């Protein structure tokens, strides 16, 4: 009788483990991560700037700390200074969301060609050489080892779910968010048109990405 009881209890325990693993897998798969969006501020003259992020998801990290927003003194060269006198190159955040990204248009790029592709694409999207360099240094190690990468730069699908409110209001806003999928084979996809507004006046630039 005890042996039967042990067998039954063992079976229940094994079933519970599998159910837990399935729950964890489903819930982890339901979320994508907005990785390292960074925000640069380039006012025409040194001034106080307030930045608020309305994100349809959960913030998992921010630096400097996001305390109901960021309040910094921004210089024309992009240097940011907080109330305690600490300097930053940009505002950084990451988060988790259940938002699905749009791959109806984009590019299928061989892993070994990723650096060259990003240099060209980011220039067309309006990033400076410094901004593009920081983007590529972050993403290239994760992408160049793949056989192919399916890449699509998101527009409203991203900006409508990660809304920025900036005071004083900037004259130019450039937001570059790359979603990509690692592939083991080439995939046809309609080519995406890339363009960006010309920088003028107080300019705000953001870049980030997500692996789908």
Can you describe this structure?
The protein is α+β, with helices and mostly antiparallel strands and 212 residues long. The chain has two domains: 30 residues; 180 residues, no CATH class. It is 27% helix and 38% strand. The protein is built from four helices and twelve strands, in the order H-E-E-E-E-E-E-E-E-H-H-E-H-E-E-E. The strands form two sheets. Strands 3-7-1-12-11-9-8 form a seven-stranded mixed beta sheet. Helix 2 runs antiparallel to helix 3. The longest helix is centred in the first third of the chain and has 28 residues. The radius of gyration is 22 Å and the shape is globular. It starts with a helix and ends with a strand.
List the helices and strands and how they pair.
Elements: H1 2-29, E1 32-42, E2 47-55, E3 58-63, E4 70-74, E5 80-81, E6 87-88, E7 91-97, E8 107-110, H2 114-124, H3 129-143, E9 148-154, H4 156-159, E10 162-167, E11 172-183, E12 203-211
Question: What pattern of helices and strands is seen along the backbone?
Answer: HEEEEEEEEHHEHEEE
How would a crystallographer describe the biggest sheet?
7 strands, mixed
How does the helix and strand content classify structurally? Answer: alpha+beta
The strand count comes to: 12
Provide a count of the helices.
4
Q: Give the N-terminus to C-terminus distance in angstroms.
A: 51 Å
Large-scale geometry? globular
Biggest sheet: strands side by side, in what order? 3-7-1-12-11-9-8
Based on CA atoms alone, the radius of gyration comes out at 22 Å
Total domain modules = 2
């Amino acid at each position: 009788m005890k042996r039967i009881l042990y067998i039954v209890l063992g079976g229940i325990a094994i079933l519970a483990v599998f159910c837990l693993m399935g729950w964890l897998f489903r819930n982890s798969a339901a979320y994508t991560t907005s990785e390292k969006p960074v925000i640069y501020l380039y006012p025409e003259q040194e001034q106080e700037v307030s930045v608020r992020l309305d994100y349809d998801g959960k913030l998992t990290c921010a630096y400097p700390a996001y305390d109901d927003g960021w309040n910094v003194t921004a210089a024309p060269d992009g240097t940011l200074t907080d109330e305690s006198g600490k300097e930053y190159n940009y505002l950084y955040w990451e988060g988790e969301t259940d938002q699905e990204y749009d791959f109806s248009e984009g590019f299928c790029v061989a892993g070994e060609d990723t650096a060259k592709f990003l240099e060209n694409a980011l220039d067309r999207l309006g990033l400076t050489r410094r901004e593009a360099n920081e983007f590529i240094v972050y993403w290239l190690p994760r992408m160049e080892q793949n056989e192919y990468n399916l890449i699509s730069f998101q527009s409203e699908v991203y900006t409508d779910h990660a809304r920025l409110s900036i005071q004083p209001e900037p004259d130019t806003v450039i937001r570059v968010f790359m979603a990509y999928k690692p592939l083991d084979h080439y995939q046809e996809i309609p080519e995406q048109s890339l363009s960006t507004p010309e920088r003028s006046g107080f300019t705000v630039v953001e870049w980030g990405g997500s692996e789908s």
